[in-house]
Amino acid sequence: ETVAERPPPKHEEAVSAMAAYADAPGRPRLAAEQGLPVRILTNSAHAYTLGTLSTTGLDVAEDAVCSRDCLGVGKPEAAAFRHVCARSGVDPSEVLFVGDEWVSDAQGAADAGLEACWLVRDDGDPADEVAATAERRARAQARLLESSSSPGGMP
C-alpha cells in the first residue's frame, strides 16, 4: 500500500457523514444505461473517491474513476481531461464535463477543448468562486463601459 492509496485519517467517519444531493443518486447509472460514457475525474485519492461514491449512492464502475494518483497529473491540467477522453474513445469536443469548481473543473475542461458546465448549488459557495466570478464580471463590464465612453474607445 502506497501513501496515495492509504485513506486519510478518520476516512470512514468522514465518508459515512457525506450525503449526495437528492437529485444525484442514480444519475451516473442512468446516463450509462442510455449509452453515455460516464467518467469521474478527481484530484482526490482513488480509494477515497470509490468509498465516497459508494457511500453516497453514486456508484460507478471502478475503472470509470480517474484520479490524480492514478494519472500522475490532476485538474486543471489539460492532460488529465484529455486522458479521460482518450480512455473513453471520444474526442474532447464531444464531451460535456460537469464540475463544481470554476478553475479546476470548468476552466480546466474548457482549456482542454471540452464543453464545460459549472455546477453551482444553492446551498453555498465554500470557495467563494461565485462571488469572485461575479466581482470579476462586474469589473470587466465597468472597464468596457469606461472604454466605450472615452474618446477613442470602443463604439
Strand order of the largest sheet: 1-2
Number of helices: 7
- Low-confidence sequence ranges: none
Fraction in helix: 40-55%
Structural class: mainly alpha
Report the sheet with the most strands, covering strand number, pairing sense and barrel closure: 2 strands, parallel
Shape: globular
Structure, explained:
This protein is mainly α. Helix content is 45%, strand content 9%. It has helices at residues 11-16, 27-33, 46-55, 68-71, 78-88, 102-111, 129-149, and strands at 40-42, 65-67, 96-99, 115-118. The chain has a two-stranded parallel ribbon with strand order 1-2. It has a two-stranded parallel sheet with strand order 3-4. The longest helix is centred in the last third of the chain and has 21 residues, at 129-149. The radius of gyration is 19 Å and the shape is globular. The chain starts with 10 loop residues before the first helix and ends in a 6-residue tail after the last helix. The mean pLDDT is 78.
Describe the secondary-structure layout.
Blueprint: H1 11-16, H2 27-33, E1 40-42, H3 46-55, E2 65-67, H4 68-71, H5 78-88, E3 96-99, H6 102-111, E4 115-118, H7 129-149
Parallel strand pairs: 1-2, 3-4
In short:
The chain is mainly alpha-helical and 155 residues long.
What features would you highlight for this structure?
mainly alpha, 7 helices, two-stranded parallel ribbon, 4 strands, 9% strand, 45% helix, 155 residues, two-stranded parallel sheet, globular
